[in-house]
Amino acid sequence: MPQAIGRQRWWALAALTLAVLTIGFDITIMNVALPTMDTALSAGTDGLQWIVNSYILLFAGLMLPVGAIADRFGRRRMLLIGLAIFAAASLAAAWADSTGAVIAARAVLGLGAAIIMPSTLATIAVLFDPAERGKALSIVVMGMGAGVPLGPIIGGFLLDHFWWGSIFLVNVPIVIAAMIAIALLLSESRNPKPVRADLIGAVLSIAGLLAFVYGVIEAPDRGWGDGLVVSALVGGVALLGMFIWWELRVPQPMIDLHLFRNRQFTWGNINATVSSFALFGLLFVVPLYIQFILGHDAFGTGVRLLPMIGGFVVGVGAGTRLAGRIGHKIPVAAGLLLTGIGLSIGAFTDPTSGFGFLTLWSVLVGLGIGSALTPSMDAVLAVLPPERSGSGTAITMTLRQAGGALGVALLGSVLAQVYTNAVDVTGLPPEAAETAHSSIAGAIGVATRAGLPGLVQDARSAYVDGMNAVLVICAAIAVVGAILTVAFMPSRTRVPAERVLEPVG
User: Fold this and answer.
1) Which residues of 350-372 are buried (b: 16+ CB within 10 A; e: fewer)?
2) How far is CA 482 from the centre of its chain?
3) Is CATH 1.20.1250.20 the right assignment for the domain spanning 1-191?
4) pLDDT class for 44, splitting at 50, 70, 90?
5) Domain ranges of the chain
6) Over the stretch 375-401, which tens digit does the pLDDT of each residue have?
7) Which of 191, 203, 428, 496 has the least C-beta neighbours within 10 A?
8) 1-191 and 262-505 share one CATH topology?
9) What is the 3-state secondary structure (H, E, C) of 405-435?
10) What are phi and psi of 351, to 5 degrees?
11) Rounded distance, CA 167 to CA 94, Å?
């Protein structure tokens, strides 16, 4: 890509930030609308789960081949295609009249996101030189992060004034603006020496990732020992093993796995995944805590997530500046350590702690994750040759999404187990006991219908116990990540980008 001149690069970056903002919305906005959609569509629990999970499945499963396709056929072109798909799927979801139609539209939204995200990061890698890339990346990450609290805030407002489909329409004007800006401000970039299409690698990666992520998604509900779950997980791992074997032997691979011989690339990916694991874990448990323990609605929940996101934004800026001065290692390790400290403090939450205590530790966690995440991703971009920026960033985003999905599944199982063991359903009829055991929302519903205030208090206490267990696990992983980063991550980029792909040894 010819280097954009002067301010045009930054205007192009604003267009890219608009493109990923919609992905940030979709992380949380659906949670607000699920109860309303359940009533309007008679979706049921399984239907609601797949309205959420169909998006995750396609998003995580398709990024690897899409990154390679963007390198071959053009990143600007793929961005425009991804945005067009995202807009069309948003319109389809808004006017869907059945659960199946919404699930299908959400799956297509996942396809659009799988095209947008790696194409955006690859464009940044080509558009900006090393001195400016960290700042550019931090702006895009902050834009995506801003969508997390804005999702429930905007979603809550729309649901109060319009029908449930309006939550999808908010994407459309943003996407159209992004498409116009990208078409006008961004020049095309692609690999000048494209490799032959690796169809076998593409099929193996898609099949393996889809099977593995499907197993992870189904595990909390079906159980980790369920035959379908085990088959999906084992089959997915086997297919991904075949994919790795194939990519290491084919003359022109879809993804050059020799990238992992570079320690900065490897540890940048590991730490980006660890940061995402902590962030996904936090976003999994804290909104329910705000709603069912502190007693706020969806709109209020979004507002009360703002301190954490504010910490995240400050951390992104601080981590980026530090990385530019002293390298990636120290800000990443410090960010992970701060994340662990914040989560450890949060693990002392009790049902009476209140919003002030939540603000204290969640701001620390936001600062830590922000400080670690952007330098981790920049560490990856720093060692990618421009012609492979699409496939290289696709690896990072795939690991983050698959790791996040696995984290939510594992943490969800921990939360459910601790909650189920702690909540007391003695004396309840079997059906009511099962409902109370299923979730804190179920327990509060049973208690409200039966006039059992003691059950409400017991369920809230049980949920907080489960949340604290999740926070302890996330804290331990973050601290271990910090220690390993100090031990193994290079302090500064030592391998020129053009040499990263050369075999080592």
Assistant:
1) ebebeeeebbebbbbbbbbbbbb
2) 20
3) yes
4) low
5) 1-191, 196-253, 262-505
6) 888 888 777 776 666 667 777 777 887
7) 496
8) yes
9) HHHHHHHHHHHHHHHHHHCCCCCCCHHHHHH
10) -60, -15
11) 7
Q: Kindly state the tokens that stand for 87.
A: 């807009």
- Of 1.20.1250.20, 3.40.50.1100, 3.30.450.20, 1.10.3720.10, which CATH number belongs to 262-505? 1.20.1250.20
Cα dihedral 476, 27, 174, 313, rounded to 10, equals -20
Query: pLDDT tens across 387-436, in order?
Result: 666 667 777 777 887 777 777 778 878 888 888 888 887 777 888 888 77
DSSP assignment of 92-106? HHHT--SHHHHHHHH
Q: Which of 192, 191, 187, 232 lies closest to 213 in space, CA to CA?
A: 232
Residue whose pair of structure tokens reads 């999994």 in the numeric block: 284
Rounded Cα distance, 113 and 79, in Å: 10
- 174 touches 22 (CB < 8 A): yes
DSSP type of residue 349 = -
The tokens describing 185, both together, are 């401000």
What are the distances in angstroms from CA 152 to CA 40, 266, 305? Answer: 19, 35, 10
Contact 177, 323 (CB under 8 A): no
- In 3D space, the residue among 427, 323, 312 whose CA is nearest the CA of residue 370 turns out to be 312
What Rg value do the Cα atoms of the chain yield, rounded?
22
Question: Do residues 25 and 151 make contact, with C-beta atoms less than 8 angstroms apart?
Answer: yes
How confident is residue 105, by pLDDT bands cut at 50, 70 and 90? very high
pLDDT of 348 reads 94
Residue at token pair 């963007």: 70
Is residue 500 within 8 Å of residue 125, measured between CB atoms? no
Which pTM was predicted?
Answer: 0.80
Q: Which residues contact 199 (CB under 8 A, 6 or more apart)?
A: none
CA-based nearest residue to 268, from 390, 389, 399? 399
Q: Tell the residue number behind the tokens 């804005």, with chain if given.
A: 150
Calpha distance 225→262 (Å, rounded): 37
**Nearest residue to 411 via CA among 489, 470, 337:** 470
CA dihedral 395, 401, 405, 408 (to 10 degrees): 120
Non-local (6+) Cβ contacts of 6 within 8 A are: none
| Angle between helices 453-488 and 263-292 in degrees, nearest 10 | 170
For residue 5, pLDDT beyond 80: no
Structure tokens at 487: 């031990």
Q: Tokens at residue 161, please?
A: 């004034």
CA distance 193 to 390: 14
Q: Measuring CA to CA, how many Å separate 343 from each of 325, 358, 424?
A: 28, 10, 27
d(CA 168, CA 94): 5
